[in-house]
Amino acid sequence: MPYKKIRQIMADHTGCDPKRIHMESSFGELGIDLTEDVELLMALEDAFGIEIEREAQSVWDLVKLISDQSVL
Questions:
Q1: Exposure of 67 in the CB half-sphere (CA atoms within 13 A)
Q2: Domain chopping of the chain, boundaries
Q3: For the chain, which residues score pLDDT lower than 70?
Q4: Fold of the domain spanning 3-69
């Protein structure tokens, strides 16, 4: 499961404490606005080598999308 890697990338990208990032956390709860959303998705796409739909609104959405597409 890519959760730990996603959490670390999100923490590095936003400056958020990784302990605040949980599966049920929404981007809004983590202070990620629309501009940061695009930059974060691009960083995750680079890290996992896949394309991520903009529909992702939470950490769980990202885990699901990445798990379904990647060959970790």
A1: 10
A2: 3-69
A3: 70-72
A4: 1.10.1200
